[in-house]
Fold this sequence. Notes:
- About 75% of the residues lie in helices and about 5% in strands.
- Helix 3 runs antiparallel to helix 4 (about 100-130) and helix 4 (about 100-130) runs antiparallel to helix 5 (about 140-170).
- With about 210 residues, the protein is mainly alpha-helical.
Amino acid sequence: MADSIAIARGDSPPVFLDTQGSHHPQNGTLFGFWLYLLSDLMIFACLFATYGVLSRSFAAGPSGRDLFDLNLVAINTGVLLVSSITYGLAMISMQRRSVRGLIGWLLATGALGLAFLGIEIYEFAHLIHLGAGPQRSAYLSAFFALVGTHGLHVLFGVVWLVVLVVQLRRHGITPANARRVACLSMFWHFLDVVWIGVFSFVYLMGVLP
Length: 209
């Protein structure tokens, strides 16, 4: 690999030149992914702001006190937080160059992500069965938009994780795969932080009188 990469130095930042003549700035992938996370943060900020404005617009319909099962939500929160721990163990395995350990902890993280999605889908189905779907009131529209967007991000994260496991099985811990694992780590922990905001702002404050 070292023979196929030359480093061009000049007045500009370091650039990696491969045998096909393509250029890749050093740490460009991680910097670009930070920019993506900032744009995603703006999306969630807008959704939180929308929910804050509409959080009392019940249209004579049910409120969070009438609908939310905090025990179920607490279990789901615990599942997602544990998935952050398993991903941290995956990162430790990668530092130890253990492909088997890395894949194992990534699969455990994916299983917890699927469990989180399963509980969330059950909650949504239960609310719709009660007649509290997103069309019932502006409050419920904002609720489904915020929580559903987070759930879609978790789904995309699980799909990304499965693709990454396939790449690790085929190619091992290459520099490219190591970057992908690091990017997914930032994405996954970002989703945990957002969910803590959802749990506190939407669910806990939603059951207050």
